[in-house]
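Researcher: Re-running this chain for the archive, since the previous output was lost when a drive failed. Same request as before.
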Amino acid sequence: MKLAALILLPLALAPSLVRADTAAEAKVSSTGEIFEMGSNFGKLVARYEMRKRQEADGGLTTIHRYTDPASGKLLVQEEMRTSGTGKPVEYRQDQLQQGAKGTLQVADGKLDFQWEEGPKKKHETETLDEATIAPPMLPDQIRSRWAELMDGKSVKVRLAVLDRAETVGFKIEKNEESDFQGKPAVVFKFKPTSIVIQALVDPIFLTFERSSKVLLRVLGRMPIKRVDGERLKDFDGDTVYRAVATP
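Model: Regenerated structure tokens:
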């Protein structure tokens, strides 16, 4: 089961799939470090950076970059375009570790998925569900439904999974209130609605600062992969985020 993924594969073997100018056009809004789960922030696996660009039509483009901390080489880049009302328009992922890439186009009430991994290609369409989100939209989805979640209600979404070329049902719910690095925080759980998929994919836990709703930490699946012998496998990590002050 693939659902977004960390492997430090030699990138000299991976084709250059990413448009080099996209990140340079946008301003950095947050950074992060991804650690091995259970290492107590002791084993750094990758670095993260998010950039934002406001579009002339009122839409927003966010660019998410995951890099090797030793070499600085790019592992994965995701680009998410939303409309002025926050609806998904286009989602792209370049998975350089696998030599793979994919896109989701949203138009005319349809989702159009394309995924390429070596010689393998997938092209599927699906009717748009209003609850559809792409992975980079998850933090904003939690913020927009904050009051419901804090009241103990569950929020259901359809998560667009590029390498499966389909959406998968998930639900978001409040898990607990706690402190993280000295800040009052709220932890939300993101888990599949299907019992079958629950057996394959562990829940993801997202920690937000309570007052500001800033994302502080994510425990769970990342869009990078890890090397296990000669194979690439999905990676569940411990990611800590830092907001970048703007002038």
